[in-house]
Amino acid sequence: MKGTWSGSAIGFIYLNCDAVFAPLLLFTFFTPHESYGCFGSTVEGTSGGSCRRPEKRRRTDSPFNESRTDQGRGQDLISNLPNDCLLLIFSFLPSPRDRCRCSAVSRSWFALQTFLRRSEFRANVVLPPRSRQESSRCLQGSSANDLRLGAMAIGMDECGILTELSVIDTLPCSLLPLHHHHHHCHVSDVGLSAMAQACSNLRSLALHNCTKVSDRGLATVAQNCTALKNLELTHAASVGDHGLVILATRCLKLASLSLTACPRVTDRSLEAYSKHSTHLKSITVAQCPFITDYGILSIVVLLTKLETVKISSMKLGDGVLRSIARSGEQIKTLALEHVWGVSVTGYRCIGETTRLKGLSLDACTGLTDRCFRRLSPTSFAGLKKVAMTSCSSLTDSSLLALTGLAVELESLHLDTFEAFTYRGLMIALGNCSRTLKVLTLVKCDFRGRGALEQQEVYPPRLLPLPAECPMLQTVKLEECEGLGDDFISWVGLACKSITDVSFVRMDSITDRRIESFMNQLKGWNRISRVDLSGSAGIGNRSVWAVTRECKARLRSLVLRGCERVSDRGAAVITRRCTKLVELDLGGCSISDEAVEKVVGEDPPDLEVLSLAGCTRITDRSLDALDEYGGLGLNRLDLTGCSGLSQFRVNFIKIYIDEVDY
Q1: How far apart are CA 530 and CA 528, in angstroms?
Q2: Residues whose CB falls within 8 Å of the CB of residue 103, separated by 6 or more in sequence, listed in order
């Protein structure tokens, strides 16, 4: 330590001498003979002043009055100790638990604790072995505060190397007691700086709803975590250009940047990343009112390794999409969500991107059928994934044009459409039948408002249905109208490679059609996952058909909300499907008898079991789970099971990692 001191201070510390801890009462007289500037001096064991200690603010008010001070009692002299003296005392505390308790005393002690490094502990202190295992942490809700981050920074030396950190602050300020300190409730620059100084190997950082984090905290991350590759900021109201520019100049390995609802960020930040982040591959910009076309253009034009661009809830001009099509030939994925300001010409430019592999369009203003007319034969030639959501102005003609040009299409996702017809869907599937692997239809009404018009334009004799889809492996239908037994029959006949089937809340599908569907796959059955949740027409007969045909190949079965499934249907599941790892019987009409059958003689090694909403089961089912003793069972959902006692639920939590009740 530098300098000498005189004055009066009393403190208790513990020294580890031959494994015997003895209290040592220190009567030390200190008076600094050298100036100890708050940010000017460095901590011993650190290099070159890169780690600056926080400023000690002298207290102007004291809880003790002058009369007691004059009597020599109740004097708050510890607060007057120099930082170097406090660091020396803290260096005799090898236990992270003790150090965390000290850091909770005050904000100054909290900041000082994070400056201690392994090399600064006293020689007679036995430290635990250093772990080199990489780890990730997620702080959410009430756990997202500065004290938790400080504790993580203090204890990470023996727990491993922190490489991924996600913080989700969801605690509203209005619900906090008035007496709570700021660093006890939220994540701020104090906690983020402590984490950055202790975890210099951090590669991924995600901050959600951390409104107390400002440019100062990001600057500390930039100075210490130069290996950072992924940064995600959501609702960062206090973050501006200054912190992001510093991070761009320091973290040169950054590969992914996401800015969502950052009202203080402007084009200056994106311009800095376009100059320094030459390894950037993914950029997401959403709800940033001061970011314009100029900032996005600087990223698209100057960064030659950029592959993914996602823009949401912003105004765009045609120039951005034109630059993506011409200058950004390396871009492989483009996602536009709730954008406005783009004309028909701008949307047509998307098809000119020769290397585009993925396209996502969600509620884009101005997107109509005219955007897909008079396209060149090479448009969308390399497109493999298409996802369109809530594009209400698109009809069958757009769907047919897109699937006809995308000769390598592997995934088709349609969500919330009313203008598409069943006939248009089948023609589109015929266009990409040789390459399609994933088909997802969510909340689509194929009895669309243009059904009659489409039948007149495309007569039935000119629309042969696709004979087969040899590559189709995943089919997901959710809350779709106009798709009934005919479509399910076609899937069973034409899709012999299917492995994942989801018919979610499809009231038009009945037991009879599921039985016919499984019979059509006989001899070709490769299904490993079936999801029939929420379908009112599904009962025991569907369960018997699925388990009879899939047998040991089935790995996941979801029957949540199928009220017609009873004990008779559930009794055969695990007896036939011996390789099952996930079973969801939530909301089914089952009792203790079904649970006993599921985990009875020679049960499968389940990992996830859900009985949520099964009001007829009692503690008898938990007794059966006790006897089951499956080592792989790590999640059990008992939400809404009113017949269970809290005592038995607490007991089963002892040997199952995650129990929801």
Answers
A1: 7
A2: 109, 110, 113, 114, 147, 150, 151, 154
* Distance between CA atoms of residues 207 and 221, nearest Å: 12
Residue 417 token pair: 């459409």
Q: How far is CA 490 from CA 189, 494, 623, in A?
A: 58, 6, 45
Q: Are 217 and 193 in contact, with CB atoms under 8 Å apart? A: yes
For residue 565, the tally of other CB atoms under 10 A from its CB is 25
Separation CA 341–CA 471 (nearest Å): 39
Q: Hey, what amino acid is at 87?
A: L
Q: Mean pLDDT in runs of 10 for the chain (661 residues)?
A: 37 36 34 34 39 47 44 59 72 63 65 57 50 80 81 65 88 46 71 84 94 93 94 95 96 96 96 95 96 94 92 93 78 94 90 86 92 87 93 91 93 93 89 94 79 46 65 94 83 90 92 90 87 93 93 93 94 91 95 90 86 94 81 87 91 86 87
* CA angle at 20 for the pair 16 and 21, rounded to the nearest 5°: 60
**What are the start-end ranges of the H helices in 199-292?**
215-224, 241-250, 267-276
H helices within 327-473, ranges in order? Answer: 344-350, 396-405, 422-431, 451-457
- Cα distance between residue 483 and residue 508, in whole Å: 8
- Alpha-carbon distance values, 607 to 174, 636, 658 (Å): 40, 9, 11
Beta bridge partners of 258: 232, 284
The whole-model pTM stands at 0.78
SS3 per residue for 146-175: HHHHHHHHHHHHHHCEEEEEEEECCCCHHH
Please say whether the dihedral angle defined by the alpha carbons of residues 67, 72, 76 and 81, taken in this order, is positive or negative.
positive
